[in-house]
Write a structure and sequence with these properties.
Length: 115
């Protein structure tokens, strides 16, 4: 027996290889198993309301945040433009950004909402 994965669309066990692709005879879905693994590795980052965030988005801070090394807090309602999503760098911080008056910093997506 072959150890090919089931079809990601219909979960059929009767998949077969056709060159670089895997094919499902039941639903006619074709996919590259190498690309499928890469897609699974991509992390989806969502804001506090469940909206999917992407690089370049503008977000708004939803609560006052203490900033280490700064004399003041990051205030609720602060608009942050042109964010960059990063892999979990430190303790759940998944947004890299530059904020006027504070400079570059990391934020958690649970404390922002998409503008």
């Amino acid at each position: 027996m072959s150890n090919l994965p089931n079809c990601p669309k219909c979960n059929s066990q009767y998949t077969y290889e056709d060159g670089n692709l895997l094919v499902c005879p039941e639903c006619a879905y074709e996919w590259n198993p190498n690309e499928e693994e890469k897609e699974e590795e991509k992390k989806v980052v969502k804001d506090s309301n469940g909206n999917v965030l992407s690089d370049g988005d503008t977000v708004i801070v939803i609560k006052d945040l203490k900033v280490k090394g700064a004399t003041s807090n990051l205030k609720k309602g602060t608009k942050v433009k042109n964010i960059r999503l990063v892999d979990d760098v430190q303790g759940g911080h998944d947004i890299d950004c530059k904020i006027d008056g504070f400079g570059g910093m990391l934020l958690k997506s649970e404390y922002v909402k998409k503008a």
